[in-house]
From TrEMBL:
Organism of origin: Acidovorax temperans
Catalytic-site annotation from UniProt: 189, 196
Primary location recorded for the protein, binned into one broad class: cytoplasm
Domain NADPH-dependent 7-cyano-7-deazaguanine reductase N-terminal: 16-117
Keyword set includes Protein transport: no
Annotated protein name in UniProt: NADPH-dependent 7-cyano-7-deazaguanine reductase
Family: Belongs to the GTP cyclohydrolase I family. QueF type 2 subfamily.
One Pfam family linked to the record: QueF
Cellular component GO terms, alphabetical: cytoplasm
Compartments, as annotated in UniProt: Cytoplasm
Enzyme class: oxidoreductase
InterPro entries, per database record: GTP-CH-I_C/QueF, NADPH_dep_7-cyano-7-deazaG_red, QueF, QueF_N, QueF_type2
Binding site for substrate: 82-84, 228-229
Summary of subunit composition and partner proteins: Homodimer.
Amino acid sequence: MTNTPEQSQLGKASAYTDQYDPTLLFPIPRAGKRAEIGIADIPPFFGADLWTAFEVSWLNLRGKPQVALVHFTIPCESPNIVESKSFKLYLNSFNNTRFGDASEVQARLRADISEAVWRGAPHPATVGVKLIAPELFDQEPVHELDGLSLDRLDVECTRYQPAPDLLKAQFDEAPVTEVLTSNLLKSNCLVTGQPDWGSVQIRYTGPQIDQEGLLQYIVSFRNHNEFHEQCVERIFMDLWTRCKPIKLMVYARYTRRGGLDINPLRTSHPHALPANVRTARQ
């Protein structure tokens, strides 16, 4: 049976369980939304979803609470995403559960989330899980996305649903390499309609993309209902098909809700993942 967003706990009253329960995780297949943007089989991109959990706590064997930050790396090749509210409920199920040490917590997180995102895959793999202890919190940096800001442009914006026809490129000129950013990305949760605020970085080599049209296109997501991962894949595919770059990378960092942020990256060529560094708004 295929899970759908409507079957999840999103938008519903939920009782928080404080005893470890991996069954709370709710995987949703990526395939349905990918089909909507023309991906029928193998996607033309690589990448991962970089998650940060800021509200992670458990008890040690003497009952004393422990806290940590956790970075998760979920490959985009996995057949499923995990619905974010179920992720939060799952993490809260650790709150009153005793574990021997942080490595045991890390192992549970890796096993459970790997099972959820790779469920149904013929060759399941694992996700990356990095626990950061309190004594290392001060080493967590804040850094804005590098690149030329599109937000400097004084453009008129009138469209607030994805409008790929706004994308244009100079096909009759020499290719360029650019890194462009914007803090004006906003979309809404697919189920609840709650706002999702983000920043986006677009790195490409190819025909020069019209910057005004690109900014208007980013703004056009403002009233669009879709999960973070799906928005980034839609942006990637629209740029890939309309502007025909030689290389393309799209990276978005969304502000956190409920102690979780989700930061998808999609790239046309194998590329080292960036460090999971939060921006000021996160």
